Amino acid sequence: MNIESSAVAPSPPVEGAPPALPPLTQGTASPRMQWAIALIAAVGLLASGLLWQKVASIQEQLARQSADSGAQATEARATARQAQALAMETAAKLAVTEARLSEVSMQRTQLEELMQSLSRSRDENLVVDIESSVRLAQQQAQLTGSLEPLLAALKSADLRVTRAAQPRLTPLQRAIARDVARIKATALADTPALLIKLDELVLLADDLPIANAVAATRANESLKRKPEETVTSWWVRLGLLVRDEVRSLVRVSRIEEPEAALLSPEQSFFLRENLKLKLLNARLGLLSRQIDSVRSDLATASVSLGRYFDASSRRTQTAVTLLQQVQTQLKALELPRVDDTLAALSTAAAGR
């Protein structure tokens, strides 16, 4: 590189200025400049190389980071797909779990309902069983005329209710206690004594005088001498005989019931037999504990005694007295009813 210097006129020196440097010559300044330029070029080249190397490393690093980022992105996408699949699987499992939970909840509800139904069924079976046993005991008591079967059934029912320990059966327990107390306080009539009185009435039926029957001749009167036997005149004796015959043809008596006056001897026989049949029916009804039938038969027999038989006769009066005693004692034959217990059983069976 050649530097040409032009001749310049020197300027006059200024006062107080520093002294001017001597000008460089071509021979002395050129190598230095060349070395400086070369040094600068070398430094620039070195710097460029370093810069290029740094850029290359940066590019390599960027490429490596880009590759890592791509791998990470690929891995992230794979992980995302796995996470999505896992989420879907978890959602499916959650749906299955919810379905099973709902099924378990439904089964639990059904189990609770079944337990309640079993509990109600047990109580209902207990109530039905107690009701059937009480009704059967009541029928046995009516057939036998004894209160022991009914008392035993009520005590057994009270014990079973106590063991069940159900609060809704408490009214039933109170009703059973009331019925037991009422049964224990009841006094029953003597059935064998009533049967004996009915047998006496049947025996008296053959000897009861009919209201329109002719008075029988007394035995002591037959032993007395007749008036015609004391009279010596035959025509007076004949007149007395005629008078007695006329008196026997006509009889005056007071009959309250017109039906009794119209009875024939054959009808009186059937009347006695009908009376005995009514009394025997009443006896059979008493043995079978058919109290209503016994009352009906005895009422019919009482009407027959008052309408067709002689009320002034002692035998008729005795029969009427016996019949009234039997009718009075029939009221004591009625067994006490367990209506409170049956009503409580009906209420418990209805679930109220």
The span between the termini is 130 Å
| Average pLDDT reading | 75
- Which residues sit in consecutive blocks of at least 5 with pLDDT less than 50? 1-22, 24-28, 216-225
Assembly form of the protein:
single chain
H/E order of the elements?
A: HHHHHHHHHHHH
The major sheet is characterized as: none
Q: What is the percentage of strand-forming residues?
A: under 5%
Counting structural domains, the number is 3
Please report the number of helical segments.
12
Coarse morphology: rod-shaped
Proportion of residues in helical segments: over 70%
C-alpha Rg (nearest Å): 70 Å
Structural class: mainly alpha
Strand tally: 0
Structural account:
The protein has 352 residues and is mostly helical. It folds into 3 domains: 34-187 and 338-352, no CATH class; 191-214 and 254-334; 219-250, no CATH class. It is built from 12 helices and no strands. It has helices at 26-144, 148-164, 170-184, 191-204, 219-223, 227-230, 234-249, 258-261, 265-287, 291-308, 314-330, 339-349. Helix 3 (170-184) runs antiparallel to helix 12 (339-349) and helix 9 (265-287) runs antiparallel to helix 10 (291-308). The chain starts with 25 loop residues before the first helix and ends with a helix.
